[in-house]
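Researcher: We're teaching a course module on how sequence relates to structure. For the next exercise, students receive a sequence and then see the predicted structure as C-alpha cells, so they can try to spot secondary structure elements on their own. Here is the exercise chain.
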Amino acid sequence: MRLHVGCAMWNLKSWQGRFLPPTIPQNERLRAYADWCNAVEGNTTFYATPARHTVESWAQQTDDDFRFVVKLPKTITHERRLTDIEGELRSFLYAMEPLGHRAQLWVQLPGSFSPADTGALPDFLRKLPGSQRTAVEVRHRGFFDDPGSAARLREALAETGAEWVTFDTTAIFASPPTTDAEREAWEKKPRMPRLAVALTDRPIVRYIGRGDAVEAAEGWRFWLDTVEGWLVEGRSPTVFIHTPDNTESLGLARRFHEELRTRLPALEELPDTTRNEPLTLF
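Model: And here is the predicted structure for the students to work with:
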C-alpha cells in the first residue's frame, strides 16, 4: 500500500536549515528533498523544456519509486491549445525519457479551455506514448457546474486511460485572507468547486491550504477520508500539499502521510528524515 506525497517544488529558501540542510549544492537539492517526500510537481517544465542532461540528474538523485508529475510546456497547452505541437511535444518527451516510469505527464489546460473544446483532448492524448501515465487538469467552471460536460470529459479521458487532476482551493477561500501571501493567493488562485475524481489507479490531488500549518491540516480532513478510501481500493494516489508561501508545505506533506499511516498501518513508510529533521515541525 503506497501513497505518494509532495510539494510544488523541491527547494525553497525557507526550508533550508529547518527541514533541509542549511546549504545544499544545486545538484543535491532534489536528493535532500527526496529524504522528506516521494513525489514532486514538475512546474518548471511549464515555462521551458529542460535539457536532457538536467533530467538525467533528476533521475540520479531519486529512488526508483519516486514520482514526478511533470507539467507540459505552456506552448503546447496554453499557446497552441493542443494543435500543431508535434515538434514541441517530441522535444519534451525526449527530455523526459530519463525519468522512465517515474514520470506522469500533467496536461494543465487554461481556464479558457471550455467543455466545447473537449473533443480536442482524445486526439492529443493519443499522440503521447501509450505506456506513459497522463493526467489532465481543467479549470473552466463548466466542467464542474454541468454534469453533462463533466461526463463528456470523463469519457474523453477514459478513452486514453488519462487521469483527471483534482485541484482543491476550497480551504484557502473558506475565510478571508489574513496574510499578504493569502491575499495574493486570493487574487491568483481559481475558485474551483471541490471534486474528488479517481479514473485510474493513480489519482492526483493538489490541495491548497491556509498559511497556518494547523489551519492547513484542518482543511484536508475531506482528503484524508477520500485518499484512505482510494488506498483501500488498491489505488496508489499522489497528494501535493500547497500553502500560499509554501513555507510549511514540506512538513505538511509528510504530516498528511503520517496521519494516513495512523489509520492504515500497512501504508508504506516515507524515507527516514532523522539526519535533517528539526526538534519540532510545528
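Model: If you want an answer key for the exercise: Confidence is low (pLDDT under 50) at residues 277-282. Strands lie at 4-7, 39-42, 67-71, 103-108, 133-137, 163-164, 166-168, 204-208, 238-242.
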